[in-house]
Amino acid sequence: MTNQIAPIGRPKVLVVDDVAANRELLQGHLDDLGYEVREARDGIEALEAVAAEEPDLILLDIDMPRLDGIAVCEQLKAHPIRRLIPIVILTASNDRGTKLRGIAAGADDYLSKPFDSKELLIRTKVLLRQRALNQRLDATEGVLFALARAVEARDRHTIHHAERVGRYAEAMGAAQGLSHEDGELLYHGGVLHDLGKIAIPDAILLKPGPLTAAEFGTMRQHSIEGERICLSLRSVAHYLPIIRHHHERVDGTGYPDHLAGSDIPIGARITAIADGWDAMVSDRPYRAGLDEDEALRRLRQGAGTQWDAGLVRVFVDLLDGGLTRRVTDSQLAAIA
Ligand SMILES: [Fe+2]
Ligand SMILES: [Fe+2]
Q1: Ligand 1 center to residue 139 CA distance, Å?
Q2: pLDDT tens profile 181-230
Q3: Going from the N-terminus, what domains does the chain have, and what CATH number goes with each?
């Protein structure tokens, strides 16, 4: 009898090589190491195998017919979830150029032929451990995003608000020339920005009328509460400035810290505009949404006091380019 609750499956390793003898050799080694082995004979088969069942690790030959290993690596590493599968490229020991191309395509490690079973064991073990850690981090993030959606589910008026804020912020980041990583960070920060509302009582959050001063004081706690919830989670540390500071104003009269101008982290300045816009044009329990012309007038009016004037210009340009329609359409497509 084992004294363990969760069953541990054998790690699944996908071996991709067009030479049958190489596959058999690796299969033998990997069997001995206790792995469950799948095989693919070229890049196309490899991608099909990954789509059918995600392996925990891929051993990938480079020169193959139909689709080579570099292309497989690039495709998998560009995928939001599959990029977390570790890839080890298989190369001839003297082939430095291929190793470098593999690493450039996002491979996590390489193994030189002929294979040494001890080296194989050590490298695969390290990568599988890393994978398990990544999956746990992923799970933590997943819980937070589920919480953020639960916050919205309490209030039909804000449904998909956070998602839109994330998309608007991401688009602003791209227009500002920020990197793809920063864009993702802005998107996730946007999705999580109001997470702290989970701590706000229904009587205030859902009140069908303007809030009293005391109620507004409670409502304002949501940015600090959101930060508090995420504080101990290393995987979401990057989003904390957005969560805490999305209600700061560039004139220094916002909350919680009365930061002004460029002291407000850029992610929070961007999110504040995305959030402000979506709040203005959406219906709320106590008022109908503004029409876009009026919202645009208020946005321009608040440039330099509530919001960063340069970023407001960026956002207005995006609105002129049809941003609202694009984001709403993609949301409708995601629901359908
Ligand atoms: Fe907020
Ligand atoms: Fe918000």
Answers
A1: 25
A2: 899 999 999 999 999 998 899 899 888 888 999 999 999 999 999 999 88
A3: 12-134 (3.40.50.2300), 154-335 (1.10.3210.10)
